[in-house]
Specification:
Layout lengths: L10 H4 L13 E6 L6 H15 L3 E6 L16 E3 L6 H14 L3 H13 L3 E4 L5 H10 L3 E5 L11 H10 L2 E4 L2 H11 L4 E2 L15
Length: about 210
């Protein structure tokens, strides 16, 4: 029960430590997201991170693109890094050569530098659209959580092998709805946690028409 709002199962108390019998007192979490914009999932995580920061949790944000939230980075108390991804033809050539020479994309190298700076205990992948980041975490022995913010139809956009490897290698899987959790467990046979709703449905009152 949340000591702040007295609602049992309040997301501000249990998220993102869902499924842990006892959350580590000083767990540092690096949240990784693809766009850094005003998508629903990124706004959700951005707001929840602000709440965690207010409660003394050590959290940091890394976006693989410099989206709209970049302009709000100074309005939050937690550290937030946005990689300035470019999409030009010349940049794609540069990134190909860079990856061939180093084994990482420039964005991945920036993520690893940020990891070394923040020294998190856990990577929190804000979406299921980053199997490549999960693969990098496995190679480096970094524990990670995958939060499925998408509908189940989005699963079809990914190749089966890296997608399943992402599921099997995760420390924890979290679904955004009961049906998403059910589909993940059917695909991977992994127990999947359900993010508690931040809406108290008991407060709804049905008004007669």
């Amino acid at each position: 029960r949340c000591r702040r709002c007295s609602v049992s199962g309040c997301w501000t108390t249990e998220w993102p430590y869902i499924g842990y019998s006892k959350a580590p007192a000083h767990m540092k979490i690096l949240f990784i997201t693809p766009h850094g914009g005003f998508t629903g999932s990124e706004i959700l995580i951005w707001q929840l991170m602000q709440e965690l920061h207010k409660r003394g949790k050590e959290v940091a944000w890394f976006s693989r693109n410099r989206g709209g939230l970049f302009s709000q980075r100074k309005d939050v108390g937690f550290p937030a890094e946005f990689y300035p991804q470019r999409t030009s033809f010349l940049n794609s050539i540069y990134e190909g050569l860079y990856a061939k020479a180093t084994g990482h994309t420039p964005a991945d190298s920036a993520l690893l530098r940020y990891h070394a700076q923040f020294k998190p205990d856990l990577w929190y992948l804000n979406t299921a659209t980053m199997p490549d980041v999960a693969a990098m975490a496995r190679r480096l022995g970094i524990p990670y959580v995958v939060h499925f913010q998408e509908l189940t139809s989005a699963f079809d956009d990914h190749r089966a092998e890296p997608f399943l490897a992402m599921l099997e290698g995760a420390t924890k899987l979290i679904g955004c709805s009961a049906i998403v959790r059910q589909r993940i467990e059917q695909i991977s046979s992994r127990k999947t946690e359900l993010l508690h709703s931040f809406i108290d449905h008991n407060r709804f009152v049905n008004q007669p028409m």
